[in-house]
Amino acid sequence: MISTNGFQCATCGAFHEGYAMCYGPAAPEIWSTIPEAERDARCVLSSDQCMVDEQYFFVLGRVEIPIIETGEQFVWLAWVSLSAENFNRTCELWEEEGRENEPPYFAWFSSALPYEKSTLHLETILHTRPLGERPAIELQECDHVLYHYQKHGMPLAELQALTERIMHG
Predict the structure, then answer these.
(1) Of 11, 60, 67, 142, which sees the most CB atoms within 10 A?
(2) Has residue 1 been placed in a domain?
(3) DSSP structure string for 80-101
(4) Domain that holds residue 161
């Protein structure tokens, strides 16, 4: 557990109890580029999978980031795009026991997270997890703070700043 009760918000001045420990967009970034009137005809979106124009395929996964001072994890729920072949394989195994034995898939990061440098199109590896668990997203080495945080941890002060950005836009 995080050892603090909360923080004094630098944005609004109020005391907030706790931190945002799991957060993410409801759809991949491409979803926002499609006119709302066309979405039903062009897209299929569930809580964990998305298909656009029968040619773009996405799965929701977890980017797990250790918090340095606490040992807890912050989780970004994020969308990654898969090839049609890997998406179909993921769907085949979705309800299968032992699916975590599947080799990992290459994927492109497809969520625009609130960082100064874009997170779109970062290279990732998607690791299937046991039935009932979302897959793990492993960012590939790159010059992005998200990669650095996943590999080395995020300071509690950055978690506070991130929580403020999430709460206040």
Answers:
(1) 60
(2) no
(3) EEE-HHHHHHHHHHTT-TTGGG
(4) 6-168
| Tally of domains within the chain | 1
150 within some domain:
yes
Would you call 9 exposed, middle or buried from its count of C-beta atoms within 10 A (0-12, 13-18, 19+)? Answer: middle
Q: Model pTM?
A: 0.90
Nearest by Cα to 80 from 61, 52, 98, 105: 61
Distances (CA, A) of 128 to 4, 71, 80, 122: 33, 24, 13, 19
Render each residue's pLDDT in the chain as its tens digit; 169 residues: 343 567 787 888 888 787 778 999 999 999 999 999 999 999 999 999 999 999 999 999 999 999 998 889 999 999 999 999 999 999 999 999 999 999 999 999 999 998 999 999 999 999 999 999 999 999 999 999 999 999 999 998 898 888 888 777 7
Q: E strands of the chain, at which residues?
A: 6-8, 15-17, 22-23, 43-45, 49-52, 56-66, 73-82, 105-109, 123-127, 136-139
Alpha carbon distances (Å) from 21 to 2, 9, 76, 130 = 10, 16, 8, 22
64 in any annotated domain: yes
